[in-house]
């Protein structure tokens, strides 16, 4: 598992995040309307209690897929 | 036979390709009690499918043994894309509806002795259990067709909430004390079911309510993915009651209960006593293959779309059944699910067979065991269990 501290810098710039367990991808540009997150919803604005819609993993188990 | 090739790779031949058709045939077989009575003229034949599943399948598992082979990772993308494997799962859906409705109709229109009625209820219930297994396989996929087919597969037995509860609840909480669908060491299945069935519905409803609140849609609407299959259930059951009278409802409920108890049985054996540890940061460790009991028994795996390769399923939840892998050094069940179901229905036999196996699977480390409250001290004493920290101290 990636260390949260090591991702701190990358996290600020990332706009695409993926579930480390199942690969589900969250792209800020597209949002995820079925989950209630419209296009443009920033990752930081997604509640901490939200989980991956495909496998339930907590938001904390997502990692940035790009560096912005 | 179809081969899957990648550039510069040896062609991979899936030797199980046509064996998966058993996952279509066996649900039909266990639900064929009414046909067997009609063809033979003897009520006793209704017990044949039950005997096949509970007696023959465990024996076949013992005789045919285990399959520890895996497809090479280079072949997996083509294997996952091969639509043949999906069409097999789709083919089960009409069988589920036909068996459920057909059995209720047969029970309502024939004067049968109690033992024949019981056999038909158990047979249709077992078929419904395969329906939940199918709903599980399809419900994990992220395309609309397969998700809708999952709801349709789960509807006859009134368990449409399962795919939400399972994907977003059980997979999140598996092998933790918070999970109503993970059994604890020292907990028997008859205690577990009272935690598992209501806990699943409650967790599913909470998850779906939260999602709908985020989307701004009303909870009591057809946007609700629990209510969508529930409406199908209502329509089917109401149609059967209208056609055959109120007793149809009794048969619907009994068949649905036995079907749903098959899921309870699977949940009971799949994670018995295994615990994901909580780190110093308060976070629960990620689910690993060793947090599930695995079974490589070849025959029963052919019958249940590889569900028994449960360790890889929880570690990689969206992987399709044909690609699930065996890993070395996993907690291993001594038989397939059908055999282990029978064992878990007799709790002293289950404890005798599994408790020592559990202790071995976790290396004797009590901090990796989820204990039934009130039984921890007794079990620690019996097996001389200490946590790794206690040993270090």
The helix fraction of chain B, in percent, is: 55-70%
Of all chain pairs, the largest interface belongs to: A-B, 21 and 21 residues
N-to-C SSE string of chain A, H for helix and E for strand: HEEE
Total beta-strand segments of chain B: 2
| Mean of pLDDT of chain B | 94
Largest sheet of chain B: 2 strands, antiparallel
What does this structure look like?
The complex is a heterodimer of chains A (68) and B (393). With 68 residues, chain A is an alpha+beta fold. Helix content of chain A is 15%, strand content 15%. Chain A is built from one helix and three strands, in the order αβββ. Chain A has one helix spanning 4-13, and strands at residues 16-19, 25-27, 62-64. In chain A, strands 2-1-3 form a three-stranded antiparallel β-sheet. In chain A, strand 1 and strand 2 form a beta hairpin. Chain A is globular, with a radius of gyration of 11 Å. Chain A starts with a helix and ends with a strand. Chain B has a two-stranded antiparallel ribbon. Chain B has 393 residues and is an all-alpha fold. The termini of chain B are far apart. In chain B, strand 1 (3-4) and strand 2 (12-13) form a beta hairpin. At the A-B interface, loops of A face helix 8 and helix 9 of B.
Tell me briefly what this model is.
The complex is a heterodimer of chains A (68) and B (393). Chain A has 68 residues and is α+β, with helices and mostly antiparallel strands. Chain A is built from 1 helix and 3 strands, in the order αβββ.
What would the keywords be for this entry?
heterodimer; A: 68 residues; alpha+beta; three-stranded antiparallel beta sheet; 1 helix; 15% strand; B: 393 residues; mainly alpha; 59% helix; globular
């Amino acid at each position: 598992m990636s260390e949260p501290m090591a991702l701190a810098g990358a996290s600020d710039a990332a706009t695409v995040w993926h579930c480390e367990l199942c690969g589900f991808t969250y792209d800020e540009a597209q949002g995820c309307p079925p989950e209630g997150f419209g296009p443009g919803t920033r990752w930081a604005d997604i509640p901490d209690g939200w989980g991956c819609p495909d496998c339930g993993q907590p938001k904390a188990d997502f990692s940035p897929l790009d560096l912005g | 036979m179809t081969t899957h090739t990648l550039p510069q790779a040896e062609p991979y031949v899936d030797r199980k390709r046509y064996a998966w058709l058993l996952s279509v045939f066996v649900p039909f077989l266990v639900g064929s009690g009414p046909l067997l009575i009609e063809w033979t003229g003897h009520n006793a034949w209704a017990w044949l499918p039950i005997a096949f599943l509970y007696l023959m399948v465990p024996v076949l598992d013992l005789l045919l043994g285990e399959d520890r082979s895996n497809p090479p990772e280079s072949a997996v993308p083509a294997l996952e894309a091969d639509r043949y494997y999906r069409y097999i799962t789709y083919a089960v859906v009409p069988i589920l509806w036909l068996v459920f409705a057909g059995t209720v109709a047969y029970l309502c229109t024939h004067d049968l002795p109690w033992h024949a009625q019981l056999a038909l209820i158990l047979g249709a219930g077992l078929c419904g259990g395969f329906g939940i297994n199918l709903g599980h396989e399809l419900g994990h996929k992220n395309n609309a067709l397969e998700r809708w087919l999952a709801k349709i597969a789960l509807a006859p037995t009134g368990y449409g909430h399962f795919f939400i509860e399972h994907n977003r609840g059980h997979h999140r909480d598996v092998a933790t004390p918070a999970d109503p669908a993970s059994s604890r060491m020292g907990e028997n299945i008859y205690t577990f079911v009272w935690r598992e069935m209501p806990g699943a519905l409650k967790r599913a409803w909470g998850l779906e309510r939260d999602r709908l609140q985020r989307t701004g849609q009303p909870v009591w609407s057809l946007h609700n993915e629990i209510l969508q299959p529930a409406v199908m259930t209502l329509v089917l059951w109401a149609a059967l009651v209208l056609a055959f009278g109120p007793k149809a409802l009794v048969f619907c409920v009994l068949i649905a209960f036995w079907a749903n108890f098959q899921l309870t049985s699977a949940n009971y054996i799949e994670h018995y006593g295994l615990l994901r540890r909580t780190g110093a940061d308060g976070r629960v460790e990620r689910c690993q293959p060793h947090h599930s009991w695995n079974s490589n028994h070849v025959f029963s795996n052919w019958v249940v779309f590889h569900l028994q390769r449960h360790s890889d399923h929880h570690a990689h939840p969206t992987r399709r059944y044909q690609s699930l892998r065996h890993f070395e050094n996993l907690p291993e069940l001594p038989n397939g699910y059908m055999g282990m179901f029978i064992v878990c229905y007799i709790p002293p036999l289950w404890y005798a067979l599994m408790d020592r196996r559990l202790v071995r699977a976790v290396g004797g480390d009590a901090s990796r065991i989820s204990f039934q409250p009130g039984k921890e001290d007794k079990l620690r004493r019996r097996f001389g269990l200490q946590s790794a920290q206690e040993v270090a101290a």
